[in-house]
Amino acid sequence: MRLKGKVAIVTGAGQGIGAATALKFAREGAVVAVCDLNGSAVTSVVSACREAGAAAMGFTLDIADRAAVDAVVESVLAQFERIDVLVNNAGITRDARLQKMTLEQFDQVIDVNLRGVFHATQAVADCMVRQEAGVILNASSVVGLYGNFGQTNYAAAKFGVIGFTKTWSRELGPKGIRVNAVAPGFIDTPILSTVPDEVIEKMRSQVPLRRLGTPEEIANIYAFLASDEASYINGAVIEASGGMTL
Predict the structure, then answer these.
(1) Average pLDDT across the chain, whole number
(2) Which of 146, 154, 222, 232 is flagged as catalytic?
(3) How many Cα atoms occupy the beta-carbon half-sphere of 159 within 13 Å?
(4) Domain carrying residue 63
(5) pLDDT value for 229
(6) Disulfide check for 14: which of 41, 84, 201, 241 has CB 3.0–4.6 Å away?
């Protein structure tokens, strides 16, 4: 088990990539702190992690609320005395064209997808520095590399996450902390449940592999990056898009 004994916090872990990551980490031997705004989803994922044989705890968390983030980190430290991995996965979309986007839509996405990453990382940084070890994994997106129609707010946040990753890898690398990002492409998650079939088919057609990715495939990347097998990977942005941007 590649993550045996490691203590990991996964945000946005109630469904999709976050849930798959929490369960993958559990199967790889990690202690998992499952965090999500949806309390019932947290309970379900915690149960699945425990069924996989892992120690797991759950937190209903609004990642945009700094006091709540600090409380989660304090609780994890109180119980396990260390934090080895943080997966900044929590994210939302509020799409609209530039001329139609409201300030509320813009602010909501920035607060969760960018400010939330800052909150969680700053909250665990002192602990990891004391340990002289740790891994921070940030969820970017191919939208953060190339932009996308109707996603001014999302693109800005995901570009920003890449900037965080590059900066923090320089600041924290000398302290023994690795910081990397993953930039998924089209992934088959519940967020696509309202997307029309013809749009899904168009998405598939843009991918050389002619299919959407699965949450488990992204979770596998996070598990590798969190493990000692990736001990010399720092400051990287790994695109996982089936080749859609070639």
Answers:
(1) 96
(2) 154
(3) 10
(4) 7-235
(5) 98
(6) 41
Identify whether 146 is a catalytic site residue: no
Q: What is the pTM of this model?
A: 0.96
Domain of 157, CATH number, reads 3.40.50.720
**Residue with tokens 């902390």, as numbered in its chain:** 177
Residue 22 resides in a domain: yes
93 part of a folded domain: yes
Amino acid sitting at position 158: K
Q: How far is CA 146 from CA 58, 141, 187, in A?
A: 35, 9, 17
- Per-residue pLDDT reduced to its tens digit, 100-138: 999 999 999 999 999 999 999 999 999 999 999 999 999
Q: Does residue 1 lie within any of the structural domains?
A: no
Integer CA distances (angstroms), 232 to 84, 179, 180, 219, in order: 16, 11, 11, 19
- What is the total count of domains within the chain? 1
pLDDT, position 217: 98
| Residue 92 DSSP SS3 | coil
**CA gap 54, 36 in Å, rounded:** 19
Question: Tokens 């943080």 map to which residue?
Answer: 86
Round the CA-based radius of gyration of the chain to a whole number and report it: 17
Sequence-distant (6+) residues with CB within 8 A of 231 are: 178
Distance CA 15, CA 192 (A): 12
